[in-house]
Write a structure and sequence with these properties.
The chain is about 80% helix and about 0% strand. By secondary structure, the chain is mostly helical. The chain has one domain. Helix 1 (about 1-20) packs parallel to helix 3 (about 55-80). The radius of gyration is 15 Å and the shape is flat. The relative contact order is 0.15. One of its GO terms (biological process) is xenobiotic detoxification by transmembrane export across the plasma membrane. Belongs to the drug/metabolite transporter (DMT) superfamily. Small multidrug resistance (SMR) (TC 2.A.7.1) family. InterPro entries: EmrE-like, Small_drug/metabolite_transptr, Small_multidrug_res.
Length: about 110
């Protein structure tokens, strides 16, 4: 169940961060409401996830997967493009998340 909470935290953070650009520095009401609600869901869910997932592992997964998903959202919603070094960096982040999940004994509960 902890990984479900972690997934919800990641999704909430991605939604909130994506809406932040649309909020225009919190000058537009509904995107600003989405930002606040998204981060509230993200931190609430993360607080449940870290009950059993080690803090460093949960945060590494949350931030790593979040970075990649935010990049995808920025591409789809705001037509932001990445150059080759950025794509290589994203690949390394994905590789790091995979190494943590597949090989680290730190993820054991």
């Amino acid at each position: 169940m902890s990984y479900v909470f972690l997934a919800i935290a990641i999704i909430g953070e991605v939604i909130a961060t994506s809406a932040m650009k649309a909020s225009n520095s919190f000058t537009r009401l509904w995107p600003s409401v989405i930002v606040v609600c998204g981060y509230a869901v993200a931190f609430y869910s993360l607080s449940h996830a870290i009950r059993t997932i080690p803090l460093g592992i949960a945060y590494a997964l949350w931030s790593g997967v979040g970075i990649v998903l935010i990049t995808v959202a920025a591409y789809l919603l705001y037509s932001q493009r990445l150059d080759t070094p950025a794509l290589i960096g994203m690949s390394l982040i994905i590789a790091g998340v995979l190494v943590i999940n597949l090989f680290s004994k730190s993820t054991a509960h």
